[in-house]
Design brief:
Number of strands: 11
Order of helices and strands: HHHHHHEEEEEEEHEHHEEE
Distance between the termini: 81 Å
Structural class: alpha+beta
Radius of gyration: 43 Å
Helix content: 40-55%
Shape: elongated
Largest sheet: 4 strands, antiparallel
Strand order of the largest sheet: 3-2-5-6
Mean pLDDT: 77
Strand content: 15-25%
Length: 359
């Protein structure tokens, strides 16, 4: 990593009293070819770095790792990378911690680097030298039956790259959960305990899955062609199976009747409201039930609306009753042998309401 990518973010590593000087050197060192972060990102990184360093000095590495990792993502700096890597090592994440420290050690600091940068890099070298020998190596070998698919391996729920099978994988010391799957095989789960600085080989043997289908055998001649007998020289009449279930019933007419009933009730309600409105209008326009000739059209409209409302309610009640009865009986009629198109549509006339259709 070039020196242009290194930035000073939070306060000094050893003493919180250096925080002001570290923050000042952060601002002075900004600039270079890398796209500059925004002011809000710099300010947020500074606060996260300060909180992370204070948590690390207090021995709370879990909090420190969270804060420092966020600060590094916003604005990387040696003074956050060193305590981050050191805390990762203390938490048992030695592989991750040594990689964090390695990135810092490989940085070439500029001649004008702040003293706190140099101190952080020197401490990273010291911590790295003691942490590297603690890393273990785990080699995983998978035995599987012929014809099985390529194995898929996870270590602690992390996918293992196929290139690492039968090769040493740097691993943190401790117990690791290993899961192996392959098509045509039963999944296998196991665990392995890796002491610090040791190398172990784990052999996982997969068993074939009895339920896996590898291809059905072709039917035999005897099964494909039933033997002929003298009692049945040729095809005979086909008789219906007495035990066969009855054909399903077609409920289309039941639903049509219910739908017609609902339409009828709706039409009756609408035209009833219109008739009542016309009557109220005529009551105000006519004195002592004597209306002017000009009101004759309103009278005719009221009578028509009332008639349509009455017919609509009648059809609605009958449709709902018939459709409900047919559904309660389980069917309206057996399903026809030939599939045909059913077309049903309600119609409304000036003084009538009905249903038309083709079955």
């Amino acid at each position: 990593m070039s020196a242009l990518r290194t930035r000073l973010l939070p306060p000094g590593l050893a003493r919180r009293a250096c925080s002001v000087a570290v923050a000042s050197s952060l601002l002075a060192a900004s600039g270079g070819a890398r796209a500059e972060p925004t002011a809000s990102q710099i300010a947020a990184a500074r606060e996260l770095g300060r909180a992370g360093v204070m948590a690390a000095e207090a021995g709370d590495c879990a909090t420190a790792v969270d804060k420092l990792a966020r600060a590094e993502a916003l604005y990387p700096a040696p003074t956050t990378a060193e305590p981050l890597g050191e805390c990762q090592v203390k938490l048992g994440k030695i592989v991750a911690g040594t990689e964090t420290l390695n990135r810092l050690v490989r940085q070439q600091l500029p001649p004008t680097a702040s003293p706190v940068w140099v101190a952080a890099q020197n401490k990273a070298r010291t911590v790295l030298a003691t942490a590297l020998p603690r890393i273990g190596k785990l080699r995983i070998h998978v035995e599987r039956p012929a014809g099985a698919g390529a194995p898929t391996v996870t270590v602690d729920d992390e996918a293992l790259d196929p290139a690492l099978l039968d090769n040493d994988r740097p691993s943190d010391p401790g117990t690791h959960a290993v899961r192996v799957t392959a098509s045509g095989c039963l999944p296998k789960e196991t665990s392995v305990t890796l002491p610090e600085g040791t190398t172990q080989t784990l052999v996982v043997t997969l068993e074939p899955d009895p339920g896996a289908i590898h291809g059905a055998p072709p039917p035999s001649a005897s099964a494909a062609t039933p033997p002929a007998t003298s009692a049945t020289p040729g095809p005979g009449p086909v008789t219906p199976d007495a035990a066969a279930p009855s054909p399903p019933r077609d409920k289309t007419l039941a639903y049509v009747a219910l739908g017609t009933g609902v339409v009828g009730v709706a039409v009756g309600t609408v035209f009833g409201v219109l008739a009542l409105g016309a009557k109220n209008h005529l009551d105000g326009a006519c004195t002592n039930k004597l209306c002017l000739p000009s009101s004759q059209s309103d009278i005719d409209t009221m009578h028509s609306d009332a008639l349509v409302s009455t017919v609509g309610f009648g059809v609605g009640i009958v449709g709902v009753a018939v459709g409900g009865y047919m559904l309660l009986q389980g069917s309206s009629s057996p399903r026809p042998a030939k599939t045909g198109q059913v077309t049903v549509a309600p119609w409304v006339g000036p003084a009538s309401l009905g249903l038309t259709g083709r079955f």
